[in-house]
Amino acid sequence: MPFSKNTSPELLLARYRSLLDDVPVVIFTALTATAIQIVALKDDVDWKVAIALPLMRMTLGALIFLYWFHHREDTPGIDKVRWRLRAASVVLVFAGMASFLRTLYLFHHTDSFGHYFLIVHATLYGLCFAFILSRIGIAAYLYNVFLLAAAISCIFLGNFEHPYLLTALILVFEIGMLFAMRASANVFDRLVNATHETHSLLQENQRLANQDSLTHLPNRRQFFMHVEQQLTRAKRTAERFAVGIVDLDNFKPVNDAYGHHVGDLVLVEVGRRLAKIKISDVQFYRLGGDEFAFQVITDGQQKVLKQIGKEVSRVISQPIKVDGFPISIKASIGVCQFSNTRDTAQGLYEHADFALYHVKRTGRGSMEIYSQALEEERLHLNKMDQALRAADMETELFPVFQPIVNVNTGEISSFESLARWSSPVIGVVPPGEFIGVAENLGMVSDITRLMFKKAIIAMAAWPAHIRLSFNLSAYDVTNKAVIEELIYMVAQSRLHPSRFIFEITETALLQDFTTARDNLELLRQAGARIALDDFGTGYSSLSHVQKLPLDKLKIDRSFIKDIQTNPTSQTIVRSILALCQGMQIECVAEGAENKSQVQFLQTLGCQLIQGYFYSRPMAQEHIQAYLSGLSLKENLVA
């Protein structure tokens, strides 16, 4: 029927299910009415017409009921639903035509009682069945017309008084029934459409609640939900699985250099590449920012995890071309495997996050799986966290100083101030361990102020030509209030500002390069000097050298340790020395531990050297003895 082509699939399915519920009522009513007709007309009409044909109709009704009963639990597709509704429509129309013809035939073979019976029978059939089956569409209206036409025809064929009044009465009920059928169908359709729209909105809200809008990967909420489900299954079946966190290295400089629009396009491309990885049905998620995650069933031997780590690193490290800009990034990955029934989704995530933290701290661009060694390190950091919270910083934290020597004159050019923490709970802690914890606790600026104050006090006893080299953390260099306070402390010290050198690392610049550059300009305007530490190991080093107000570069110790045997290290150091000479800024080589390294650096033209060869970091009370008792020239080669 035409209605099935133009009606939405949702409405068709709703009509179909509603009609299924009405099938038993329709068949029961039809069989009962047919049985009554047999009893009423059996004496007036030939048995073949009065009994045999109705029995055939009853048999057909019983077969339809059996078909319905057998398929009542089916969930057919929309094409099959269309076919069944069309078939039902055709059957209903033919049933209406057959009832019309049979009623007229029986009218000529019955007495006055039979006439009244046929009129009432056709009218009730036409009104009631059409109303019950109205959701089948136009076929129900045609069935109604055939039956009402049969009743009205019988009125005018018979010898009835006032046939027009009887016809008008039937038509009044017919018109009312048609309006009722139409209204019922409209209410049903509106209800179905409203229900479908509500369901669609719920589905869309559910999708938005569980899907990242930028990359279309499942989001953080979905990640934890799936991990919880997998945990429940794993605790019941001992199935091995793992969760991982993927963090994009040096993504922030992409945002800073090209804008957030390009950054978003990079994230979209990363999400697309991750979604294509199909190792062991791994599922990827976007947790937020430049952080992604995954969960996967493992073999218990880390083979699958290593494959995923290798593939993730491969696809992300491939250049991404966005708006004509070729962008290269890498990924660091932290993973934690389900190991015992006490594990929780949050616990697995935190362990994977700590493994990621370990990768970031020890060398980016690789994967680390949470292990017993990392568990011990995490517990140590937790202990350090608690000790630092309770520490009396004024008495427990103190600076030590390592000299930077001018090898040409044999004099000390400056001392680098290095923070130390002597905890009564965990002993002496180097800054490489506790500064990160202090940053997480929001205490690093307090430590900076305290160490700078103590360094200024120590500096007051030094010869006037010796400078102080002081390290700034990532938080310090991007916090204008801290920088202004340091400038104020320099002014209050009554020491010449040029004696203060503030060291920053390229890693510290990555958080907010523009703010860091502006803050360093404030230090320069106050008369202090700026040094870039660990040069050559960070991101876009030459770009930073060009844009920053620098007075000094410090060559990272990784290039010094094998400088005598590694031609690549030699070439890099020569290039950095040439760069500094061309820019007319100073250059310091860090990490010189023996005489031969110092000699080699001298031959390359390096004037300022720092390392254990001259001295380990020393407390303030040892500096005067060191200055007066040590002849540096004796250790140098002219």
If you had to describe this structure to a student in words, what would you say it looks like?
The chain has 638 residues and is α/β, with parallel strands linked by helices. It has 24 helices and 16 strands. It has helices spanning 3-6, 9-41, 47-71, 78-107, 112-132, 138-157, 163-210, 220-237, 252-258, 260-275, 303-317, 345-362, 372-389, 393-396, 431-441, 444-459, 474-477, 480-493, 506-509, 513-525, 541-547, 567-583, 595-604, 623-629, and strands at 241-249, 283-288, 291-297, 320-322, 325-327, 330-337, 367-369, 397-406, 411-423, 427-429, 467-471, 500-505, 529-535, 552-555, 586-590, 608-610. The protein has an eight-stranded mixed barrel. Strands 2-3-1-6-7 form a five-stranded mixed beta sheet, with helices on both faces. The longest helix has 48 residues, at 163-210. The protein is rod-shaped. The relative contact order is 0.05. Mean pLDDT is 84; it is low at 631-638.
